[in-house]
Amino acid sequence: MDSMEVLVNKEYKYGFVTDVATDTVPAGLNEDIIRLISQKKGEPEFMLNWRLKAFRHWLTMEEPHWPNFTYPKIDYQSISYYSAPKKNPKANSIEEVDKEILETYEKLGISLNEQKRLSGVAVDAVFDSVSVATTFQETLAKQGIIFCSMSEAIQKHPDLVQKYLGSVVPPTDNFFAALNSAVFTDGSFCFIPKGVRCPMELSTYFRINAAETGQFERTLIVAEEGAYVSYLEGCTAPIRDTNQLHAAVVELVALDDAQIKYSTVQNWYAGNKQGLGGIYNFVTKRGKCAGKNSKISWTQVETGSAITWKYPSVILLGDNSIGEFYSVAVVNNHQNADTGTKMTHIGKNTKSTVISKGISAGQGNNTYRGQIKVVPNATNARNYTQCDSMLIGNKCSANTFPYIEVRNTSSSVEHEASTSKIGEDQLFYCKQRGIDTENAISMIVNGFAKEVFKNLPMEFAVEAQKLLGISLEGSVG
Amino acid sequence: MIEIKNLHANVAGKEILKGIDLSVHAGEVHAIMGPNGSGKSTLAQVLAGHPAYEVTEGEVIFDGKNLFDLDPEERAQEGLFLAFQYPVEIPGVSNSYFLKAGLNEIRKHRGLEPLDAMQFLKLLKEKMKLVEMDSSFINRPVNEGFSGGEKKRNEILQMAVLEPKLAILDETDSGLDIDALKIVADGVTKLKRPDNAAIVVTHYQRLLNYIVPDFVHVLVNGRIVKSGTKELALELEASGYDSVKDAAAVA
Ligand SMILES: Nc1ncnc2c1ncn2[C@@H]1O[C@H](COP(=O)(O)OP(=O)(O)O)[C@@H](O)[C@H]1O
Ligand SMILES: [Mg+2]
């Protein structure tokens, strides 16, 4: 495979910076900063106390370090924990949103103008620490659906927030979840009431713009009995040569017969060819199938970030509940991805499916880490895991760490894994039919990831396929 | 069409082709026969440009161009087609998607407009009839889970769609039962035109009952030791390769 050499990566096309006046709190992390954030957001007392409690717990925790890669120590005191555009942080209507910011989203291909948008998708746009606009709120409200920023939810729906926030990922869960609980600034809140099938896709678009800030978003999705929602998440950040921290927490709650489909296309700035800059993406995503016959599916396409540390998981509490995880993770240049899932089978007849496709190019390092846990009472639990890795070139790597813990004899857990190299023969076969190297790689890789892509909503799947092509462009000579 | 002069090639540091001379003109069908390991596939792969094979001496002029100046995909776009002895599987990529991509690259190279999905499908279905392939293969991933015979038939389908100037068929007959063999041979014969040519590599004379060659060459140990007309194939069938091997040793 000598002829396969890593060339330049295509320019990251979302790397621009928007010039807006911001209200940024000084760098540093202490109780005063947390009080300041809470005050800026006009939060009720319970929220401030919740944050402070999380912060005090965080102080007692150690930053985790994973065996498969190292990264420079993060100085939590040098980060600013709140940055918001000065003008109209949260406008009452789209017309009031800062022009610069609207243009930023237009440039990213996200129109916040409801008339211009495809009517099938409602968007919550989060710019640094705050949500700047949410579309189609009124349309959705007619069916009792709440789709708003987390800040707004805390003010307008404190009961729901108090009931569900932290119910899936408690503030003490892990180091980054504790940090997020203390300082989270915004994110989306979705509530689908009993029996309602959400008529459009809900989506949040996260944009980190300011330098030296962290983004700590918090998303909470609740589907009541029999409700259905499909939610999409997209993200980008400017090119900067310093690393920026993104530590999100996403919680999903599905009650009896409810279904939540959560899709992500993660395209944070990955750093340059030498590995300088890029986002550290340390995320806790977890869903709880709280009710019987409920279903939660995670589909993710991870192409960005310098380091990704992310395990969207499902707690299968309700009887007959279903958890799914479909993932494509691509690393190129010096990227590191450590991702996978945890499926915890507690209810009876629970079922989980895990399909993970890791693609490594350049000097990228791709790790799948998955845990399947079946507790003693989870009779008839079923899991199927398939974990495939594809290597492009000689300098990249792929690792698989499946942890299986089954405490129930009537359960079955199946694990299949494969590693393949984009072979010279496969590539040659395509070229012999007139297809050039770049197109051949993109074709082979997309074929490899097809089982995952088919779970994405249509528009997203097209975007994801293009993205995959772009992030691997030039990875083979 | 193609002129091969004193071609030497190595694989893994070992010389496999030891001076091949061969000229193929438009409208001709040449058969290359020879025992296993004699270098037949190596010749085919070298002409198509597989990176594992190193050309150490000689030159090849293809349609007026120096073949070794062209990348493999450019050779394909110029009209050189190889039906592989061992076709590769491409999981998740449908046969039609793959073939459409190839065809449109070739058309682009020839200054033609790309075919849209409808036009392509029409063409594909026509060609599938020619090789008697079931339409269920349209959406199946390239060669994945195909039987040996289905893979070979798929190669001929690709050839039919891409309409090469020069087709090299590497042991397309092996692994085919007699019915499949007839279909494949029939396809090749139907595609024959005064302005294209084919090199048919085989080590059985069986195929040559169906694809009648204008010339037959015997390749032994990296050299063409004997050339003749279709009667040579019958001779070989009767007396085996040993007779020509001996002749090669004497020469
Ligand atoms: N990729 C390769 N790596 C190493 N040896 C090879 C390779 N391809 C062919 N050879 C060797 O070259 C010789 C000729 O092989 P081949 O051209 O496949 O013969 P044929 O097609 O006539 O049966 C054999 O000794 C074979 O082992
Ligand atoms: Mg051979």
Question: Can you describe this structure?
Answer:
The complex is a heterodimer of chains A (about 475) and B (about 250). Chain A is α/β, with parallel strands linked by helices. Chain A has one domain (about 1-470). Helix content of chain A is about 20%, strand content about 35%. In chain A, a hairpin with a 2-residue loop joins β3 (about 120-125) and β4. The longest helix of chain A is centred in the first third of the chain and has 15 residues, at about 45-60. Chain A is globular. In chain B, the strands form 3 sheets. Chain B has a 6-stranded mixed beta sheet with strand order 6-9-10-3-11-12, sandwiched between helices. A 4-stranded antiparallel beta sheet of chain B has the order 2-1-4-5. Chain B is built from 7 helices and 12 strands. Classes of the chains: A alpha/beta (about 475), B alpha/beta (about 250). At the A-B interface, α8 and α9 of A face α2, β7 and α3 of B. Adenosine-5'-diphosphate binds near residues 11, 12, 16, 36 and 42 of chain B.
